[in-house]
Amino acid sequence: ADVAGDIENMSQRSWREEEEEEEDAPLVRILQPAVKAKQEEREAPTPIPRPPDLKQQDKQDKQQKSQDLLRQRKPKGEVDNVNKEKKEKKEKGGDNSGDKRSGRSSPSSNLIAFLLRHSRLLAGGACLLLLVYFRILSEGVNFTNDYRDREDPFKTLGVSSSASDAEIKRVYRKLSLELHPDKNPDQSKEDVERFQHITHAYKILSDPEKKRRWLNNENPDYHGLPSDTETITDKTASSLLDPAGPPWLLLAYADWSDECWELAETWEKVGKEASAFVRVGRFNWEKERNLAKKFSCYSVPMIYAYVKGVRSTFYGSPTPANISVFLTRALEPAVSVISDVNAGGFLEDRNDKVKALLFAPVGMIKLRLAFRSFAFRFQHSMDFAEVAPRGSEKLRKLLGVENGTTIVVMREEGSRPLVYSRRMTYEKLQQIFSHFQYAEIPRLTSFNHRDLCGDGVRGHQPCVVYLHDSSQQSLPPHIIPTLRNASQETLEVDLHSGVSSQLTTFAWVDVKEQPALKRLIGNEKGRVVAMDLSQSRLLAFDEDFSSSSLARWSRGLRERMESDFEPLPQMVWRSETQEKWNLKKRGREAASTLTSLIIWICVALLLYSIKTLMLDLKLFRSRERFRKAIDKGRQRVAAMEESRRSKWEELEKQQREAAEKKRQEAEEREKKRQEAERLAKEQAEEAQRLRKVEEAKKQEKAKETVKVKVVTEQDMSRAIGRIVKEANLNELTRRDVKQKLLAVFPSIDLLGNKEFIHQEIEKAVRACS
């Protein structure tokens, strides 16, 4: 009853709200019923489409219900087998719907399975082929049998690469007389071919330009862009462009490029000037593709600096001055830049190495280029640094260096530094650095004895060696200063006399730690000897051990070489020219064998693939027959399941219809009950209203003093027409009309005459329109 009362109150409240809206609405809406209907349709909320996921959820719920019904009626093992078969079908045929229905796999999927099964073998063969192609065949292997393209002309004539033109001509005449067809009409076919090879070799070596091209690893018969610089190819790049080797200045060129021909003269000039500092070369951008890829060269001409494995590219106008500045900057990592702030750290680091300092003003490109090139050449035995022009006043004052250009070389602690500020030439710098690349009194070992004693970079002057045995006592303190003073006196005499070679090295050796040198020069304690490895000679010092006597004795060593020196014993030293095993070279030599091997491997892989594919085809056919038999059984089982499922679905449908019918009957009974309650409530309200009306009539009759004026319907109609005609229909509402009518007729009953008033208002509005 309470719920019914609440529903009734809500309906009355909504009815009153609608009535008030009509009262406050302008009278113009009476003339627009069609527009109002359309607007209400437009304002009505559109039905929200059901989301697809909800539909899918309903479908899944129905399937789950049907499966639950089947589980109730079927044995548990049979249901599990059906679910297992469905899962297998989804896993096997998830992409191809045709294969799902038929249960068979296509030949394309079978081929993919074969490739996946043998992927390791195929990938190994492909990697082998790519390795051989990119590492050996792309290096320029020649598979032709042209003898002249591969034969060295020097080996053909039997002469060395340093042979003179006269010697080459003499050997060619001798061989041509022996193998000429006119001199030997009955010679064999091999002799005729050899004569042709000799003639071709002589044509190459007799022409200076062709001979230069051959020595530069170029084709002697090719007429391209000429150059005196060294030509680098893909074959020689691995040995020449060594990151641990000397720095290079390289040019990438092409014979068809007009810019390269315009740059040729400048390049020759730059190559002639820079060849004293770095190695200068070039490579053909069009032919040497590996080099072009290594240097990221995509156009010509391009100039590069290759220093310690680092490539630098030149940008700008290719003038000799700009290229010199570019090369100087590329060699900058070889030296350190110091000032008063960091000079102490540079000088104290590695006391066993010689320090070379350059004091120079801003600029001086050629001097800095030469200094940095020597820094690269002697980087293992010396430390090089350039002193900043500003912030180095204390260092200049300490070493006694003025504002001019000066080179200072410092050896071990306690020795006097060499300060050189005269005319700086390349030959003078080479003399200074070659002499000072080791400590002033170095320790002789089996690794540096050739360089120091007449068979290395210091020329062919013998070395003066003091023999010491550390097993008996330590080195006496006066030995090193005496040898140092003798070296200083010898150097000063050589510099003032202008001698640029034949420098004498003073050293000492510990015969205990150097057994090879002990067997060579003996082990007499305190003995001083002069040793010349270039002539295998040895001379003992028999005067007083002093710096002046040693310096005097060392200057006359060369004159006494033949008379006083004794022969050194024959010893087997370590090989200096051991050939390095080169994998690429061995691969190029065995290129034909490797090619045949690869072809046989490819044929074997092809035959194995065909055989495996045939076996897979047979297996596929047998599996296909087996699958067909299984499909037939599955179809019969599916048909039985479908019939059972249809029966249970029909039963479920009937149950749902019966439940729906019961629900509708219950709703009808509920509606009838609510209607009866509503009618009873309305009757009670009507009776209550009638009682109130009767009481009101009685009260009115009781008021005898009050005379009520009776208002007729005609009076109300005329008053309503006049009110509507005088007012604006867009602003006038029904509530306004009733208020004005009540002002004209105070005793009028608006509630009793509501329907009549509304009808008259509509008539008046239509009459005005």
Number of strands: 15
Largest sheet: 5 strands, mixed
Shape type = elongated
Mean pLDDT over the residues: 76
Tell me the helix content: 55-70%
Order of strands across the biggest sheet?
1-3-2-4-5
The rounded distance between the terminal residues' Cα atoms is 50 Å
- What count of helical segments does DSSP give? 30
Are there runs of 5+ residues with pLDDT below 50, and where?
A: 34-38, 40-54, 92-105, 137-149, 571-579
Which structural class do you get from the secondary structure elements?
alpha/beta
Please state the CA-atom Rg, rounded to the nearest Å: 58 Å
Which strand-content bin applies to the residues?
5-15%
Question: Can you characterise this structure?
Answer:
This protein is α/β, with parallel strands linked by helices and 769 residues long. The protein contains 30 helices and 15 strands. The strands form 3 sheets. The chain has a 5-stranded mixed sheet with strand order 1-3-2-4-5. It has a 5-stranded mixed sheet with strand order 6-8-7-9-10. Strands 12-11-13-14-15 form a 5-stranded mixed sheet, with helices on one face. Helix 28 (713-726) crosses helix 29 (734-744). The longest helix has 112 residues, at 591-702. The radius of gyration is 58 Å and the shape is elongated. The model is unreliable at 34-38, 40-54, 92-105, 137-149 and 571-579 (pLDDT under 50).
List keywords for this structure.
769 residues; alpha/beta; five-stranded mixed β-sheet; 9% strand
Put the structure in a nutshell:
This protein is an alpha/beta fold and 769 residues long. The protein has 30 helices and 15 strands.
